[in-house]
Every structure is written in C-alpha cells, then in structure tokens.
Here is the input.
Amino acid sequence: MATLKDVAKYVGVSATTVSLVVNGRADEKRVSEKTRQRIYEAIKVLDYKPNLAARRLKNSASHKFSVALYWPSDDRTTFLSRILNGLYSEVRKLDFKCDIVVCLFEKDKLRLESELHKEYAFDAAIVGAISKNDMKYLEELEASIPVILYNRELDKYSSVLNTYEVVFQKIIQELVNKQVSNITLFQSDTSYLASQDRTASFIKLANEANISTKILRGASSYEGGYALAMKWQDQPTPFIFSESDIMSFGALRYFNEIGLKIPDEVELISIGLSEIAFTAFTSPSLSILSVPTEQMSQEVVRILYNILENKQTEPEHKYFELEFIKRESY
Here is the structure.
C-alpha cells in the first residue's frame, strides 16, 4: 500500500508538502496550485490512503475532529482548491478543531469506501459531486457518522447546494426581449449530475419561451470548447450557453482567431466553476453564472460545527443561487 512518502517521491516534493495538501493546509504554507494538482494526481495514481488509525490516535490527544472529504477522482479535482479554501477559511474563523482529509474515489464506487460505516475512521464526512449510483448507495446506507452532501440532496443528510432557476429565468427573459429565437448549448460528453440538471433546466425554460435549442457535445476541456466553436460556426446562433467555463475558454480562442465579433455576432454565457479572476481576464471577458463554491464550503463547515460541537441532529439544507456576473461576452 502506498505511503505518504511514496506520494512525495512520485511528485518530487517533501513529505511535509504532501501532508499539508492532504490535510487541507496548503494555503497556510502557500503551496502552489500546480503542486497541489500534481499531488492530487499522484494520490489517484498510487491509490494512497491516509493512516487513519494513527491520525485518530493523534487527534484524540489534541481533541481534534477528523473529517473526510470524499471527492471523485476525475477532472473535477480541479475544483478542489476552491472548496478547500472555503472549508479552511471557515475552520479558522470558527476556531474549529478539526482535520479535513481528502479521500478520492472512483465514480459509482463510493460503496467501496468502507470508512463511511466504520466509527473509528472519521468523526464526519463531506461527500461531493457524486453520481446517481453513489446517491442510491448513500440513500440505503446506515452511516455510523454524520454525512454532509456538497451540491447533492437527500432528505436524510444535511446538504449545501446551488440553485439556478431564478437567474435562468432572468436570462431567458432577456433573450425573449432581444427576440432571440434559437440558441446553442455547449455540453460535455461526460456530463455529471449537477451540470446535466442545470442544462436540462435551461433547455426547459427556453422551450417554454418558444426558443429552440441545439446541443453540441464535446470534451470538457480547452480543446473541446475550441472544437465545439468550430462546429457552431457551421450553423451559427446568436447566443451560446456553455455548461463549462473551461470549454468557453477554448471557444473564445477560436472566435478570436477567426475575428468573430463578440457580443455583436454571438453572445456567450457560461457556468463559472473556475476561479472568478480567470474568467475576468479572457478576451473578451466572459459573462458567467458563478457557482458560489467558497460560500457553499463555508456553510458546510458551519453545519459540521453545529453537528460535532453543538450536537445538532436534524438534517439541514442550505441553498445558494448562482451569481450572474455580466461582462463583455454578453
């Protein structure tokens, strides 16, 4: 079984650096984003698991809680830095004595993470970005520790998630006012549950407003967005809704190369999952529906604190609306 030192050797950093990242303390020591991503990838490749028994023993002496953050080991690990920033900013604010351990798992295989039903492993778990199969597993699970869902909802567990109906309705109404009758949606060919739900909701509202929709699917990457922009040009529409800002970055690159005028010839709005600053410095700057990742993560910690410190027992559900940040692309 891989050790923390194995991960450090694989990445070419110190064991201390790996420990800081695994325990969500990378910001305190200013570990670069590039190094964090390399460590996350090494954890995935080597299938590294923390020594939970030793951690538990150590924390019992210092009265610290041990909390697992379960996250799928796919391209969504790029969002972990924002989530960890939010979690640890609130941990410091509340002076909450806890360690947060990142546990990567394979999509649809959450049931293999036996720590969820072993009382000695963790005091609580945060579970995020899970699939329908993993949701079904959690619904049936009699967890021995408190579980909080990140951007997923089940009645039996506390949850923090985003909503989007209000801001979607606002955008659709603006398109109606502009007399836009047909639009294109850029969708990942490996769409995940949250993005599927958002896209389906947007299409439903558009259809109700008699706006026809065309879906173009491709890789959720810069290259994927570039390729979708090329496909869009074959049958252009005056508006594009993209489920990924990463794809939008690639699309903007292509539009700039061919000299397309934005927003005069096409308007573009994207779901914003990356750091907000990234989307502000594209050319033109990208209009986004920003997922309030840090605020949602802070709310997760507040719920955790109430559960572990104040012995709250009833599930709590908190909702955060997407924030519309209007810029040059719309």
In short: Residues 30 and 200 are 39 Å apart (CA to CA). The chain has twelve helices and twelve strands.
